[in-house]
Design goal:
By secondary structure, the protein is of the alpha/beta class. The protein folds into two domains: about 100 residues, Ribosomal protein S10 (Alpha-Beta Plaits, 2-Layer Sandwich); about 160 residues, Vaccinia Virus protein VP39 (Rossmann fold). It contains ten helices and 14 strands. The strands form three sheets. A seven-stranded mixed beta sheet has the order 10-9-8-11-12-14-13, with helices on both faces. Strands 2-3-1-4 form a four-stranded antiparallel beta sheet, with helices on one face. Helix 9 links the parallel strand 11 and strand 12. Helix 6 runs parallel beside helix 7 and helix 9 runs parallel beside helix 10. The longest helix has 14 residues. The radius of gyration is 20 Å and the shape is globular.
């Protein structure tokens, strides 16, 4: 029987609340946080004692550790990539470890969880190390995600892919905010888009997305990947804008996204945990977006807006 994977995230104590909220988006069954920044005060308030174990007193008061546990059937690499990118977007310094194993071990061991998978009606996501697969009439998206978010196994990615399929036609232009591995941009081109521009704040994601584009035969100007914060490096207007990112960033982005959309364009957004859904809806309303469709899977929400 397979073991669960423990993900340990070390952050500065001042960031632990926000880091914990983001970590809670990875699993539905809770997390465990070690935070010793106010050890003496909390020991007295909770247990009314001032005698504390010496090992506890030696703990680093400036650091906190968030523990997340990934079940055997889930893909731990996808969880790690999600956390890395969300923490980067929120400017949270973090160190992520899995089961105390060496980086080079888990960077390869996660591959056992990722196999060719059909998504929607038209795509097959194929990890490049898998030689045997049956695509039928589906377009094959070849991907090596490295440590960037986006393999197609996470609910938010699947929701975006399935929704993109409805809106991409010959000549469509696409802007992918928080592109991660490049999976949504590449999928758009395979589905018939004329041009896809992806942008990510994370340098590793940008490198990975460019490499995945090359593997699938796409390069500039058809496929362009930029490193930047949201749209600070982007110009032009697009038929489809897709953002598979955390709710707080979507809310912040809502004030600007319309200026990058062609008339009649669609804004597809996911990465929204259901407990933050109303906050995102409020932002849509504030900035003049009308929700055309809502999709859910596993506690995550995806919206189509105009």
């Amino acid at each position: 029987m397979s073991n669960w994977t423990e993900v340990k995230i070390s952050v500065n104590s001042k960031d632990v609340d926000k880091a914990g909220d983001i970590a809670s988006m990875v699993v539905p069954y809770g997390i465990y946080i070690e935070d010793y920044s106010e050890l003496e005060k909390e020991a007295w308030e909770i247990a009314h004692i001032d005698l504390i174990d010496e090992d506890l007193l030696k703990k680093d008061r400036n650091k906190a550790i968030v523990h997340v546990y990934i079940s055997p059937e889930e893909n731990p690499m996808e969880a790690v990539a999600f956390l890395r990118e969300r923490y980067s977007a929120e400017n949270i310094d973090s160190e992520i470890m899995l089961n105390e194993c060496r980086n080079e071990d888990w960077e390869n061991n996660w591959k056992q969880y990722f196999h060719p998978i059909p998504v929607g009606e038209k795509l097959l996501i194929r990890p490049i190390w898998e030689e045997e697969f049956e695509a039928g009439d589906r377009a094959v998206l070849n991907i090596e995600p490295g440590l960037a978010f986006g393999t197609g196994t996470h609910e938010t990615t699947r929701l975006c892919l399935e929704t993109l399929e409805k809106h991409i036609k010959k000549g469509t232009t696409v802007l992918d905010i928080g592109c991660g591995s490049g999976i949504l941009s590449i999928a758009s081109l395979l589905l018939g888009a004329e041009k896809a521009v992806g942008v990510d704040i994370d340098a590793l994601a940008v490198k990975t997305a460019k490499e995945n584009g090359e593997v699938n035969g796409f390069k500039e100007p058809e496929y362009t990947i930029l490193q930047g914060n949201l749209t600070d490096k982007v110009s032009g207007k697009f038929d489809v804008v897709v953002a598979n990112i955390v709710a707080d960033v979507i809310i912040m982005f809502c004030k600007d996204v319309a200026s990058f959309m062609n008339e009649g364009g669609v804004f597809i957004t996911s990465g929204i945990i259901d407990t933050r859904e109303q906050d995102v809806i409020d932002a849509f309303n504030k900035y003049g977006f009308k929700i055309k469709a809502r999709h859910t899977e596993g506690g995550w929400v995806c919206f189509e807006c105009e």
